Amino acid sequence: MITPITRAEFETFWPTFSRVMAAQETYAFAPDMTLEQAYQLWCELPLKTFVYMEQGEVLGSYYLKANAAGPGDHVCNCGYMVSEKARGKGVARALCEHSQQQALALGFKAMQFNSVVSTNEVAVGLWQKLGFEMVGRVPKAYRHAKLGYVDTFVMYKWLANEG
């Protein structure tokens, strides 16, 4: 079940969040971020943040926010995170599909991922299966903890029916 996240749910999700940050393989967030900083970044700054729960356990989360202001405020941006035990079980797909529905309900017309790490092949493949196009490549834009400098992709999907 996907619902708006609570503070208590984020705190339960914190071990997953902090492991992803510490790994430095997918997110350009400070690896030593505190729980308070992470909560503000993931839950307070975005427009909406949701959690995927199954049998009382937090398996994943995503945030949704405008990607830009003014004339670009019709394009949203999302970030997704899934616990290790939930990977490969359709949680990321469910979160992404839910985020697209929420984006449309909130008046957004498109979704853009600004920095998908090229070595995150599972995510890249899933986003492509869900209709996102690679519209750009930024060479050596991410300092991967194990692989050094790797490229990132800008991925985009028009969500609205009209032009």
From TrEMBL:
This protein's name: GNAT family N-acetyltransferase
CDD domains named among the record's database cross-references: NAT_SF
Record SUPFAM superfamilies: Acyl-CoA N-acyltransferases (Nat)
Domain N-acetyltransferase: 1-160
Organism of origin: Zobellella taiwanensis
InterPro entries, per database record: Acyl_CoA_acyltransferase (IPR016181), GNAT_dom (IPR000182), Mito_N-acetyltransferase (IPR052742)
Keywords: Transferase
UniProt-listed Pfam families: Acetyltransf_1 (PF00583)
Gene3D superfamilies: 3.40.630.30
Keyword Transferase: yes
